[in-house]
UniProtKB/TrEMBL annotation:
This is Ketosynthase family 3 (KS3) domain-containing protein. Keywords: Phosphopantetheine, Phosphoprotein, Transferase. It comes from the Eukaryota. SMART domains: PKS_KS (SM00825).
Amino acid sequence: MAATVMSPLVQPPDPLLHAEEKAGFTVFEVPYVNESQEESVASSSTTFVEKEVCIVGMACRLPGGISSPSDLWKFLHEKQSAQCTVPADRYNIDGFYHKDGSRAGVMNVDGGYFLKEDVRQFDNSFFGINNLEASYMDPQQRKLLEVVYECFEDSGVTLEDMSGTNTAVYVGNFTVDYQSMQSRDPDYLHRYAATGGGTSIMSNRISHVFNLQGPSLTLDTACSSSIYALHHAVNAIKNGDCDGAIVAGANLITSPEQHLGTAKGGFLSPTSACHTFDTSADGYARAEGVNAIYIKRLSSAITDKNTIHAVVRGTAINSNGKTPGITLPSATMQEVVVRRAYENAGLDFADTDYIECHGTGTAVGDPIEVDALASCFAARPGQALKIGSVSTPPA
C-alpha cells in the first residue's frame, strides 16, 4: 500500500488531472492561482523550498487516444469512456473468451482499456537503436522512451541538458507479456532477447539512451508499482542520491496469459469495466498505459524557472501484513499509511478536498478502502470529503 500527498502551487495553462496509477490512493490539495510562480512560493519558508520535491514534467499514453495530461483532463471533463474489446492486434480474444469462466483455458472477460495507437510502431533510429535490437524490445520499453522524451520536452529541458546528469530512473511494472510471447518459440530467441524483455531493462534502457547517471531500477509491487517508484524516487532526491528523477509506469497487454490468470483468480469483472463504490462491483478491468513524470528539488526548479505542476508534500508505504488471504487488504494498515503520509507532509486532514482512490471495484476492497479513509477524515470539520476513482467509467 502507498499514499502520496501533493500540493499544486499554481494552476497550469491547461487544467491537469493529477492522478496516480491504481495503487493505494493519492491525495491532493485544490490548486490556487497566483500572479507568478515566484510569488506563489515567496511566502513559503526557505526550509520548505529546500526540502520539498516537485513535478516539473509530465507525459502519458492512455486509452481513448489520450497522449497528454491535457487530453486526459478533456477526456474526463467530457465524461468519455475508453472501454473496448481486446484489439485484434493484441491477440485473438475469440480463442480465449467464454461466458463460463470456470472452463479450462478460457476467461469470461473479453475487454478492458487499450491504447488506440499501434504499439508496434517505433522510430528506433531516433533513439540510436538498430533495427534488429528494436525488434526484440518489449513495446513497453519503446513507449517508455517516447514518453520520457516528451516528459523532458514538457519540462523545458533539452537532451543535452539532461545527458550526464545525476538523474535517477524509477519504473513501476509487473507485466512481461512480450517476454512470454518470445519464449514460446526457442528458435526465435536471439542475443537481444534478454535485454529486450527483461523488466530491469525498462529503467536501464531509459538511463542508457538518455545518458542519465543516477540510480536506475524497476519495481514490481503489482498495482502499487508506480507509486512505490515515486516514493523511492522522492526519498532518493531528499537523501542526495540523485538531483532529479524520472518516475514512470508501463502496462501493455500483448499476450493472453496474465489476462487469463487474473480472470481465473476472480480479480476481473466479467463486464470488462470497474464499478468502484457501486453495488454492482464485481472486479476491476485491466488497462494499458505508459506514463512518466520528471521530479526534482523545488529549490532547483525555481532557480531553473521550470513550470511546477505540483509539489510532492509527503509519501508513505507499508504492507498489509497477515490478513485472511494474501490478496485481501487491511483497513487498519491503509489507515496507518494515510496518517503517515500526512504526518510526513506536515498537513492536516482538513486541508484536503478530494481523494483519488485505488478503487478496485471489488465487494471486499472498496468497503475496506472507504473505512480506512473514514477513520482519517470523517471527524474533520467543514465540507464532506469527495472521493472518486478514474478507473470507473462515467455514469
